[in-house]
Amino acid sequence: MGKTRKICLFIVEGIADESSLALPLQNIFDSYYKQKGIEFQITHGDITSRNGTTVQNIVAKIGKAVTNFLNRHHLQKKDIYQVVQIVDMDGAYIENSGVVFDASKSFSQYPFYGENKIFVQSPEKISLLQERNCRKSQNLERIISLPQVMGIPYDIYYFSCNMDHVLHDNANMDDTKKVDEAEKFADKFGNDSEGFLGFIESVYPKSVDCNKEKSWEYIRMKNNSLTRCSNFILFFDHNQ
What we know:
Layout: E1 6-12, H1 15-32, E2 36-42, H2 58-73, E3 80-88, E4 99-101, E5 112-113, E6 118-120, H3 123-143, E7 148-149, E8 152-160, H4 163-168, H5 175-189, H6 193-202, H7 212-220, E9 229-230, H8 233-238
Parallel strand pairs: 1-2, 1-3, 3-8, 4-6
Antiparallel strand pairs: 5-6, 7-8, 8-9
Helix pairs in contact: 1-5
């Protein structure tokens, strides 16, 4: 890895997330942010909803992801100018009543994300999913306005109800298809910065002012954390 450019470190949940975004983002940075580079740190799951993650330790866990990246690449904090975390909403802010047992066994995988409900495969899973949503939403509230991690500027953006939902209009994609679809998306927009930015702008919540506070106010309301939207376009507005 070259050290001539400061790095924007993107923290993502899985390999498909990196596969989707790496080429389009690299092309944008090469064109518009020539003194800055990008790298990814994959957390292999959602830090914000993981068992054992609390409002007391969520910042430290994000810091550990940054430290793991630095150690792996033999870099120092000064080499990173910004940490950007990308999170799936997963319906985290819906009411508890929106988590329901699918008695008809209609779906091939669970939890299944509907337009206004999350379906689980057994009555016992209802409370577990509700607990996950509570844990995730509380942890998000801790970090939405977090200014720094390890002294490095930090920001967080969402894809709802997950990245597959936003990029492929499929909130319940089979794991075996995720990387293939991610690569198709990267092929489509890898060398088309205007097309990529236009797409990301098109999925910003409708009729919501383009600022961070308003975008997070929207996602907290009613069943909006299950809708298809993202506030990631604000990253580019912020970095102009």
